[in-house]
Inverse folding.
């Protein structure tokens, strides 16, 4: 086995120290070493978006990075959205508009939408559809996801 | 799947990176955005012994116009081009083209030069480099080498870069205000690789085309130009009949790939439409 590296990840403001092989995928480190299993893995090659998290506030695929590369960055996952029992506006909007069925794709969509709306609170409808086309959902047919994100766009306006 | 084992290096300077490359004796690979390399490793199609991660080399993190060129350092992500960050037609061209590259999260990480090094036949940035005659700046322990686009692209996933070279920068000519561009791409789903695409840049003087650049991507094993169509357009106004004829010439001049995604004849036909529409878009600006 290749030598293990000391890596410290900062996820949702909390520090996690670990020893991992260089090939340890960031998504796996978040799930296994940090115990945060909200981040899902579907395809493991960048296509489905289930593993989307925020790295320094920008959406990235955590299946296409190695854990060691994320040292020094601020990571945010779905577990960091709610404040205690109070859902984040994007979570509430998915609830209100039935933006999920089985829920497998949901953490990825929530993080993608949060990143996109934070960076561009006034994003137009067309650009929003284009941005959301990044992630796949096998259940909803996307219409309710789009409705939810549009509703959250209004809620999240600063 | 998960990537196979490898040794990891994270150099802090270009010098350290090219030294690590040389010491790996061809077994090391540069890790830039990882958006092409990591999927191929996860599929176990690539098994490099060592990854040399350039993401912490701050001297590679720049993108600026200088002396008539746009200099794009190796850590410039696709997303940097989403909003024009300098004046002129080139910034608008890049902002237009980048919308067609993958998706937001991939554009956050993927790099301009990583696309050039990977050299997928359907890469939009490779098409830009070919159409605008970019220069690629490569470093190795032997020093610096500047490779013009015409010599750089060899075939699918193969460039003129040697295994000891780091692509540190790409340079694009800054187009003056007499240039207009048009881009058109066909793919089955948003963000997928193109089955055919065309980038056109036209220099207009006194209402006539003084210089034409027509690039075609996703069709042959590397991006190509359409020299017959480019020559035909000189001195023309670019009215509908000119555009149709230029598109016909361009589509006859190519040797399209035949693969599971599309047969060659279909790609040729698509190319005719892509060139015509790219010309329309350029002239409508
Ligand atoms: C779902 C998905 C969809 C995509 N769709 C598109 C698309 O529509 N169009 C498109 O063009 N691309 C697409 N891509 C690929 C993406 O644009 C990659 O970012 C790009 O091809 C490679 O850039 P990178 O920085 O990620 O390079 P990496 O993946 O890090 O590296 C790719 C290759 O280039 C080499 N390399 C990288 N940088 C250098 C350098 N500076 N010097 C020497 N060698 C280097 C590496 O060793 C490796 O062999 C897609 C990717 C995914 C996952
Ligand atoms: S698991 Fe990362 S994109 Fe599918
Ligand atoms: S809700 Fe089932 S995949 Fe999206």
């Amino acid at each position: 086995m290749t030598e293990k590296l000391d890596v410290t990840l900062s996820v949702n403001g909390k520090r996690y120290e670990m020893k991992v092989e260089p090939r340890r995928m960031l998504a796996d480190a978040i799930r296994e070493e940090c115990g945060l299993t909200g981040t899902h893995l579907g395809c493991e090659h960048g296509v489905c978006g289930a593993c989307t998290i925020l790295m320094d506030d920008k959406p990235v695929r955590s299946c296409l990075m190695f854990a060691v590369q994320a040292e020094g960055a601020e990571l945010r996952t779905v577990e960091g959205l709610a404040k205690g029992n109070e859902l984040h506006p994007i979570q509430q909007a998915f609830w209100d508009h039935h933006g999920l069925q089985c829920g497998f794709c949901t953490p990825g969509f929530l993080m993608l939408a949060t990143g996109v709306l934070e960076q561009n609170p006034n994003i137009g409808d067309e650009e929003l559809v284009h941005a959301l086309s990044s992630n796949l959902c096998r259940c909803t047919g996307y219409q309710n996801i789009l409705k939810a994100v549009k509703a959250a766009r209004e809620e999240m306006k600063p | 799947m998960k990537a196979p084992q490898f040794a990891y290096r994270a150099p802090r300077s270009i010098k350290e990176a090219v030294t690590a490359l040389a010491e790996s004796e061809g077994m090391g690979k540069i890790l830039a955005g990882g958006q092409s390399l990591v999927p191929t490793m996860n599929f176990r199609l690539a098994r490099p012994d060592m990854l040399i991660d350039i993401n912490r080399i701050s001297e590679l993190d720049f993108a600026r116009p200088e002396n008539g060129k746009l200099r794009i350092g190796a850590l410039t992500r696709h997303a940097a081009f989403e909003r024009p960050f300098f004046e002129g037609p080139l910034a608008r061209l890049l902002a237009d083209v980048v919308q067609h590259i993958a998706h937001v999260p991939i554009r956050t990480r993927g790099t301009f030069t990583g696309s050039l090094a990977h050299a997928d036949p359907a890469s939009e940035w490779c098409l830009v480099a070919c159409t605008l005659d970019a220069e690629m700046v490569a470093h190795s322990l032997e020093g610096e080498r500047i490779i013009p686009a015409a010599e750089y692209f060899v075939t699918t996933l193969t460039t003129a870069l040697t295994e000891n070279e780091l692509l540190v920068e790409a340079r694009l000519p800054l187009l003056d205000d007499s240039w207009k561009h048009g881009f058109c791409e066909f793919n089955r789903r948003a963000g997928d690789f193109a089955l055919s695409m065309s980038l056109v840049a036209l220099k207009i003087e006194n209402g006539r085309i003084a210089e034409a650049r027509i690039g075609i991507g996703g069709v042959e094993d590397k991006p190509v130009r359409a020299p017959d169509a480019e020559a035909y357009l000189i001195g023309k106004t670019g009215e509908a009949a000119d555009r149709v004829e230029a598109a016909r010439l361009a589509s006859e001049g190519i040797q399209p790939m035949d693969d599971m995604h599309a047969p060659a004849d279909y790609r040729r036909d698509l190319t005719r439409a892509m060139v015509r529409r790219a010309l329309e878009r350029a002239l409508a600006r």
About this structure: The interface with chain B takes residues 1-3, 5, 21-23, 25, 28, 44-46, 49, 52, 55, 58-61, 63-66, 68-69, 112, 115-116, 130-131, 133-135 of chain A (CB under 8 Å). Residues A 46-47; B 29-37, 39, 74, 101-102, 106, 110-111, 113-115, 117-118, 120, 123-124, 161, 166-167, 191, 193 surround flavin-adenine dinucleotide (ligand 1) (CB under 6 Å). Strands of chain A lie at 5-11, 14-20, 52-55, 58-61, 74-76. The radius of gyration of chain A is 16 Å.
